[in-house]
Specification:
Chain A is α/β, with parallel strands linked by helices. In chain A, 38% of the residues lie in helices and 23% in strands. The mean pLDDT of chain A is 90. Chain A is built from ten helices and ten strands. In chain A, helix 3 (97-103) packs across helix 5 and helix 5 packs across helix 6. The model of chain B is unreliable at 325-339 (pLDDT under 50). The longest helix of chain B has 27 residues, at 208-234. Chain B has helices at residues 14-28, 32-57, 65-82, 87-109, 115-134, 136-139, 161-183, 186-196, 198-203, 208-234, 244-257, 264-287, 293-308, 317-320, 326-333; strands spanning 152-153, 156-157. Chain B contains 15 helices and two strands. Helix content of chain B is 71%, strand content 1%. Chain B has a two-stranded antiparallel ribbon with strand order 1-2. In chain B, strand 1 (152-153) and strand 2 (156-157) form a beta hairpin. In chain B, helix 11 runs parallel beside helix 13 (293-308). By secondary structure, chain B is mostly helical. The chains are: A alpha/beta, B mainly alpha.
């Protein structure tokens, strides 16, 4: 068996005396949809931040197709093919929808500051590339007819879709989503769920942290459950639903 | 545009209006005094054209750019007078020195966020001022540096006010085109991205530290060039010109003029310098006050602009030009509504 797309091995994060994530290992295969769930304070966000390069792990390693990536900076991860969205939306409010997504094609472009200042042919060529890529991504998320609107003026649900478009425009193999359904109403989250399933069909691999169990059970192929910083289960949704440890730790608190 | 409509780009069309205006102004106001005011506006526009990239686009506040003007001016003065170099070489070396210093200062301070960057650059400005005053053997200290040569162009000495007016405004226009080219590209989006959300920009693969540093260096080079031109134009410089009060005036110019599109740099310089040249003397006389009137005036201006036109006077330009965007927003309203 070849290396999985993403492999996390013995990942641990300590904040002072508190162990937020303790020796967590799991992997994500190509073209799989994996969800990380867990009660509040379980360490999901810390785990996510370590994978996205925001927080350095105390110990343990992260491998992208066998290559160790835990010492890379945030901007290097994008070049390696990891793209992400944010829990509390991080769109560029003052830019149009189109420009938001065009900026997402950064790693595909070569224009430097001097190139921009003196080589207009290069700028025109790359603008066209970025524009066409953005147009395609916006088409996918259904925002093409809003491309000239200011991003900050879109509804919250559409801003989430915009963030997804921006994340997929450079066709990264691995897409990380931090609570994609947070703040969405039922209709919006249903639409986003179908979009994520559609992205899988197009070849993307998705790893997401989520609270909304309905979405997780609907779209995840495999679920990793974290509680008090430890991984307590890892398997397909049906198995997770029946796992007594998971029920005790998490599902038991509410009715699903 | 060639079929591609990319919003957020500044128009070059303002040049069609600006160039005739620059030709007419010295004809309408031929006095040496008026031309010297226009030249001064040009010199400050050079600095603010760099600052709009740094502050308006990338969102990094500097309170130290007068120091880079000073470094440029003193490099020019020392290299041409003390070391007998040609004027152009002094200017170019001054720009290189400023770039190197900006690189060193920037690589340390740009890690700081928001107000801390402003404070660090303020501190840098104070250090440069102290060096200019204190290192008298080289800079001739607080009394100032005299006898800086006039500009030479192809063996031709520029002596008249109008020569400098032309020289400086040609440079302003060239730099404006360079700044426009930079913002009208992917780089412009990167810079605005840094302004809106550093973490999002970073996660798209942008090495934001490098971009911030490069823009800081470019804006310092613009300021250095302006300082050098100032030195050869006035032929006398003193440290006080390059103290923090000038940095604050530069900030005021950018805030009042606005920065998107970049023409705000020229508008801001024009407003602030016109106020200090034309209105301040009148007010001073009318109120029987001292020169502090200028500070009060600037303070009031800043408050009013922040309250009523937070994006600066340049943002009013869109009311003069019929919006091209209209047809697109028309499209936008017809689409399916969410929620």
């Amino acid at each position: 068996m070849s290396e999985p797309l993403l492999r996390v091995s013995g990942l641990t994060k300590k904040f002072g005396g508190i162990t937020a994530v303790n020796d967590v290992s799991f992997h994500v295969n190509d073209n799989e949809i994996v969800a990380i769930i867990g009660p509040n304070g379980a360490g999901k966000t810390t785990l996510f931040n370590m994978i996205t390069g925001v927080t350095p792990p105390t110990s343990g390693d992260i491998f992208l197709r066998g290559e160790k990536i835990n010492h890379l900076q945030v901007h290097d991860l994008a070049r390696k093919g990891i793209s992400r969205t944010f829990q509390n939306l991080q769109i560029f409010h003052n830019m149009t929808v189109l420009e938001n997504v065009m900026l997402g094609s950064h790693i595909k472009l070569k224009t430097g500051i001097l190139g921009a200042a003196f080589n207009r042919l290069l700028v025109h060529r790359e603008d066209r590339i970025a524009y066409e890529m953005a147009e395609e991504a916006l088409e996918k998320v259904g925002l093409k007819d809003r491309m000239y609107d200011i991003a900050g003026e879109l509804s919250y649900g559409l801003q989430k879709m915009l963030e997804v478009a921006r994340a997929i425009v450079s066709s990264p193999p691995l897409l990380l989503l931090d609570e994609p359904m947070a703040g969405l109403n039922d209709g919006e989250s249903a639409r986003l769920s179908s979009l994520l399933l559609e992205l899988k069909k197009q070849g993307f691999t998705l790893l997401f942290v989520e609270h909304d169990m309905k979405t997780v059970m609907r779209i995840a192929e495999r679920i990793v459950v974290i509680n008090f910083g430890n991984k307590i289960a890892d398997g397909p949704p049906e198995a997770i639903k029946r796992d007594p440890q998971v029920i005790a730790a998490y599902l038991g608190e509410e009715d699903y | 545009m060639r079929g591609l409509h990319i919003p957020g780009y500044s128009s070059y069309k303002a040049l069609y209006f600006l160039i005739p205006l620059l030709i007419i102004l010295p004809i309408l106001f031929p006095s040496n005094y008026m031309i010297s005011v226009f030249t001064q506006i040009g010199i400050f526009s050079i600095v603010t054209l760099g600052l709009v990239l740094l502050m308006g686009y990338a969102g990094q506040i500097s309170l130290g750019h007068a120091a880079f003007m000073g470094i440029g001016a003193y490099s020019s003065a020392i290299l041409t007078v003390t070391y007998g170099m040609p004027v152009w070489l002094g200017i170019v070396l001054g720009m290189l020195i400023s770039a190197a210093i900006a690189y060193i200062v920037g690589s340390q301070t740009l890690k700081l966020r928001e107000h801390f960057l402003a404070l660090a650059t303020l501190g840098f400005n104070i250090i440069v001022y102290i060096v200019l005053v204190g290192y008298g053997e080289l800079t001739k200290g607080a009394s100032g540096f005299l006898g800086i040569p006039k500009f030479q162009l192809f063996g031709f000495a520029l002596t008249k006010e109008i020569h400098y007016y032309i020289l400086i405004w040609v440079i302003v226009l060239l730099l404006a085109i360079i700044s426009l080219n930079i913002v009208n590209s992917h780089i412009g989006r990167v810079l605005r991205g840094i302004h809106d959300s550093e973490i999002a920009t970073q996660s798209l693969g942008v090495n934001i530290a490098r971009y911030k540093l490069n823009i800081f260096v470019i804006s310092a080079v613009y300021a250095s060039l302006a300082g050098s031109l100032y030195a050869h134009y006035i032929n006398f410089i003193a440290p006080a010109t390059f103290n923090i009060s000038t940095s604050i005036e530069l900030l005021l110019m950018v805030a009042v003029g606005g920065s998107q599109p970049i023409w705000g740099a020229l508008i801001g310089s024009t407003i602030v310098i016109s106020l200090s040249e034309f209105i301040t003397p009148l007010l001073t006389k009318a109120l029987g006050a001292k020169s502090e009137v200028k500070i009060v005036l600037f303070g009031a201006l800043l408050i009013l602009v922040m309250m009523y036109i937070p994006k600066g006077f340049v943002s009013l330009l869109k009311y003069l030009v019929p919006a091209k965007k209209q047809k697109y927003s028309g499209l936008a309203t017809t689409n399916k509504t969410e929620k």
